[in-house]
Amino acid sequence: MCGIVGYIGNQKAAPILIDGLSKLEYRGYDSAGVAIYDEGSVKVRKYKGRISILEENLKKETIKGNIGIGHTRWATHGEPSDRNSHPHTNYSGNIALIHNGIIENYMKLKEWLISVKGDHFKSETDSEVIAHLIDYFYEGDLLDAVYKAIEKMEGAYAIGVICKDEPDKIVAVRKDSPLIVGLGENENFIASDIPALLKYTKDIYLIENEEVVLLTKDEVKIFNEFREVVKRDVFKVTWNAEAAEKEGYPHFMMKEINEQPKGVYDTLHRRLDKKDNIVLDGIKITKEDLEQINKVYIVACGTAYHAGLVGKYAIEKFAKIPVEVDVASEFRYRDPFVDENTLFIAVSQSGETLDTLAALREAKRKGARILSIVNVVGSSVARESDDVFYTWAGPEIAVASTKAYTTQLVSMYLIALHMAVTKGSIANDQYKKYIKALKEMPDQIQKIVENEESIQKIADEQFNNENVFYIGRGVDVAVAYEGSLKLKEISYIHSEAIGAGELKHGTIALIEEGRLVVALATQDGLYDKMLSNIQEVRARGAYVIGVAKEENKEIEKVADKVIYIPDTLDEFTPILSVVPLQVLAYYIAVARGCDVDKPKNLAKSVTVE
Ligand code: F6R
């Protein structure tokens, strides 16, 4: 996690760094800091808390320097505090460093540095060690010292370094943590992610793993691990700065909920030709390849994992291939049964989630073919995959994922249908029916979003509940998991999702007077069974909010409140039924006064294990 930025040019660095950091605050917000070369010294200012605190403090003085680095932190080693904030420096304060990632051998390095140099460390962080290490190797050439330091470092890192004695350069390195370079006129930038730079440039170099970058204001040089210069094409960003702004919405999360019709439309229509055939440019799996594949693993974390659960349902149903879904942090350590006949599907909004990336590498090592569903173009997961399916959600800023999830669902359905057509396991009229239903989704989501006021009313009545259960059957269970996660992560209410049929095997013991139960009953074939399960919890005092298709009104007789979704085929209800759950979680969190876009203890991009 953590966000890093750097600027070198003719403008004052401080406001550019603050602006860039504010766009990266979704990556972590425990503390923030900058180091700027100004009037012959490296000035470091860093504070516990949000970027606004750093900004307020910077207003109290004039720092005119036009080269600097900045950092917003999600604490791993050492509590959030001024001392543990970045940038870190060497003992004399000549060298300043920002770091995103974890240095796994930092204890050993620290002990070694203390023994050879008698160094004093000011923080409890792993990152500070890097500044001391660079200092140890520094003999007048920052690039050389950085190269020597990274030889000793184990772990994941994107770093930016400036040095008082070479005030015309920034040196940056990427290893398993994201890093991009922005190209300007007489100015250049580094950052963890594109939104930080959009205001200044749309010309980007995507830095590859183990590359080292030397930036001056007029030039950017990229080197590989052997210190050879490498050429890189400029990546042109196609979206504008507004895409990363709130545009009048109170929170990014609400803006992103409202962007779902567009995200779903774009993700779908960019893959359909005029005759509604699915055309997947980024996926080169042939009929012969598919015939070899006897197993699919879908591996992801959090919300993306929940999209994977729906993916299992879709691939097994349409393409008739067995699918296992696993959370990435478990998959990688359990010696999964993967071979060259396995298709491994990684799902990730950011494309930088370390667990997902590590699981992907493990599957690749064992010979699997790697397909990824990713939102961020050029991200690590995308680059290390054989086939890539990009979701067209646009930048997702709120920590709680919404539009990434619905576009991941559409991607899953398209991949499953594509496989089914390629394999010949689906009849043409059935295919046509499915595509027609998918094409109705953007308008149907719009209809749900327009009904947000009625969901807000329910939220205003129920926001004090401290335990909430989400239940469903069939594919509704996957949506129940996602609804539950949305609620707990932004409102801090304890919540649990469970298959409705499983309730009576233990969990129903927790149902008592006033307990809130959200019951998804969108599956025609399981509708009556869900009504019985709702009655079971009602009989024990639960207050039930039902989610059902408009055509199924029977639920009104057993639930306390009903939220309807437009009628659609059972297979595709997750794309619709998750939307009221997102809106419900949002308004409950707002009613509780929570910081919706930046929930406590969380960060958007999880680049640590
Ligand atoms: C929850 C949420 C997380 C992410 C998870 C994976 O709202 O956003 O659970 O889904 O951290 O992140 P990505 O998709 O970037 O790999």
**Main sheet: strands, sense, barrel:** 8 strands, antiparallel
Number of distinct beta strands: 25
- Assembly form of the protein: single chain
Low-confidence spans? none
Ligands: fructose -6-phosphate
Overall 3D shape: globular
Number of domains: 3
The average pLDDT is 94
Q: Indicate the radius of gyration in whole angstroms.
A: 25 Å
Can you walk me through this structure?
The chain is of the alpha/beta class and 609 residues long. The chain has three domains: 3-243, Glutamine Phosphoribosylpyrophosphate, subunit 1, domain 1 (4-Layer Sandwich); 246-439, Glucose-6-phosphate isomerase like protein, domain 1 (Rossmann fold), CATH 3.40.50.10490; 450-598, Glucose-6-phosphate isomerase like protein, domain 1 (Rossmann fold, 3-Layer(aba) Sandwich). Helices cover 35% and strands 23% of the residues. It has 18 helices and 25 strands. The chain has an eight-stranded antiparallel β-sheet, covered by helices on one side. Strands 5-6-7-8-12-13-14 form a seven-stranded antiparallel β-sheet. A five-stranded parallel β-sheet has the order 17-16-18-19-20, sandwiched between helices. Helix 9 (302-319) links the parallel strand 16 and strand 17. Helix 7 packs antiparallel against helix 14 and helix 15 packs across helix 18. Fructose -6-phosphate binds at residues 301-304, 348-350, 353, 356, 400-401, 485, 489, 606.
